[in-house]
Amino acid sequence: MHELSIAQNLMALCEKNARENNAKSVKKIEIKIGRLSGVEPHYLESAFSVLQPDSICKDAVLLCHLQEIVVVCNDCGAKSELSKNEFLCPKCGSAELKVIDGEDMYLMRLELGF
């Protein structure tokens, strides 16, 4: 389960930001997880909760926002959001798509306690 190592890295990033800002705690963590990122939000939340008790994030709320796949068609130029892994342009049917969002995981917001 690679979500455990991702949770460890997320925890380390939160602790680093808290130290740099002289915070006493982390209250809320918001992340965006792309559907193509390979990260399963449920498993990440479970792994995070295992690491939480012994960290500055012990009382933090973890909010995971799932990012759909956003593409631009190289043929017609349409920007679309795909709700399933069917890589065809919804406008013209072309398979010549460029993925512009939905492949990564980002830390979007960190709420610190002082």
From TrEMBL:
Keyword Zinc: yes
Gene3D superfamilies documented for this protein: 3.30.2320.80
Keyword Metal-binding included in the entry's annotation: yes
Residues binding Ni(2+): H2
Keywords: Metal-binding, Nickel, Zinc
Residues at which Zn(2+) binds: C73, C76, C89, C92
Role this protein plays: Involved in the maturation of [NiFe] hydrogenases. Required for nickel insertion into the metal center of the hydrogenase.
Family, per entry: Belongs to the HypA/HybF family.
Listed name of the protein: Hydrogenase maturation factor HypA
UniProt lineage: Bacteria, Pseudomonadati, Campylobacterota, Epsilonproteobacteria, Campylobacterales
